[in-house]
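Sequence in, structure out. Go.
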Amino acid sequence: MESSSFLPEEHLKLPDQPGVYKYFNADKDLIYVGKAKSLKKRVSSYFNKNSGVNLKTRRMVREIRKIEITMVNSELDALLLENNLIKKHQPKYNILLRDDKTYPYLLVTKEPFPRIFQTRRMIPKRGTYFGPFASVKAMNNVLDLIRELFTIRTCKLDLSQAKIAEGKYKVCLEYHLGNCQGPCVGKQEEADYLKDLEQAKHILKGNLGAAKSYFKQEMQTYAEELNFELAQKFKDKLDLLEKYQSKSLVASPSVKNLDVCTLVTDEKSGYVNYMRVKDGALITSKNVEVKKRLDENDEQLLLTALIRLQDQFNSDADEVLLNIELEEEIDGLNVFTPKIGDKKKLIELSIKNAMYYKKEKALLKGLNEDKKDRVIKQLQADLSLQEIPDHIECFDNSNIQGTNPVASMVCFLNGKPAVKEYRHYHIKTVDGPDDFASMKEVVGRRYRRLIEEKKPLPKLVVIDGGKGQLSSAVEALKELDLYGKMPIIGIAKRLEEIYFPGDQFPIHIDKKSESLRLIQRIRDEAHRFAITFHRKVRSRNAFGTELTSIPGIGKNTADQLLKHFKSVKKIKEAEKEEILNVIGKSRGKQLWEWMEKNKGA
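Output:
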């Protein structure tokens, strides 16, 4: 693997070899990653005026200021490297897989008498992870099967030989129910436990055939020894496993180990169904939406989705079935588009899932858009506003007995949170617990900034509080000559009453109204955002005060630590060497000794 850099005008110097190319803009941001069988031909095609590339691609090409390439041995290597780079950097012009879920895994721990439990966090040193599972239900079905077949412990005890020998443990209810053999009191040898665990791992990998062979062999062995009770026990386990397999059977058991990936499209997106099949049984099924960025063709969309999904679900498939024939074979990727038989039926099943997913997304999108428009139009009617309030901003203050006063502003666009527009404020001009003056300050600062930056003003301003806070916010708007140019209301917490400036009596919106629920949601979000910030500030200030009480640690050092570690928690969790590197050996040693002394305090 070899990397090089070029300027756009030097692209003709590129090698005629497979690899990955990266495009950077004037700000040195990575804007696109692509793969190529021939780097020279592929990159040159972007700059060829006669190539007929679309408008989106031409827009990207105008941004390119630097090209970096990495040569690899094969087109498959290029595909894999491209996937890793896109996953890491998420360039703005690359195909986007719309899937922000955190998937569950099953973890087999690295400890005496290992446990199996579900988790969404991967920490490799804890043990071996199996998954991810496309749904919690699918994962629980596998876990329930394993617990019916094997006696795997569920407790969190330290079952080292020394601890067991001390005799400090007693068997629990799981032992009496027959779900555990009591390794905590020495009633089960670890070798026997690990024998069962090995078969459980086969099932977690989807290798049901290996587990079935084990149960069949054990059944026959005990039958030959005339131990019919144990033979029957293993026969029951074999029947349970076969019953589980029959429920997930989608093809002939002769269909051993393959992936199925199909695509259907519309103008803006592709809809992909991905299935993993082992021994004829479906062990994973996942639907994803693939967002087009540069009018990619179906082959590009499908290949991109396939590589990312195989990576995500740790595929070890021997063969991949696609519903689109590739123009050229890719060495190392065993791809096939079947025309008849069980494999053709798998393609048809996968397409059916992709089509259903496409219809479901279209229906959901329509419902969401209808609801969004309906709610903000209803809010316009309820508040008698001249314009649809598709841009709403809400303010809230937070302080405890006047300490660490802060405020927040949250922004909702088209009825949805626009998190990038949220703002935190330290109160600068107010001493003591004065919510009214604090509100005036932050409202004034917010809209003075918008005026200076010539940014659009909101269609509705919401103040979390009653008449007092609302009057203070109005004063700020009057000073900026904005009062009357955008509507402003206050919402009182106790009775959820809506106040307009100058009105003696509040208006009451129906408690079941979607428009009131939207205002409440915005108010609650502003409150949450302010409280979270206040806790963080209070914690930082409290810890900073503690730090500065240590000889040799002043305000600048405390600020230096917080700037590097970002939070008090991370300072306390940091390694000694990292602290020494940030503030030096002498002060670092003093701080470390103080933290060690005050651990748990």
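Check: The chain has a mean pLDDT of 83. The longest strand covers residues 281-291.
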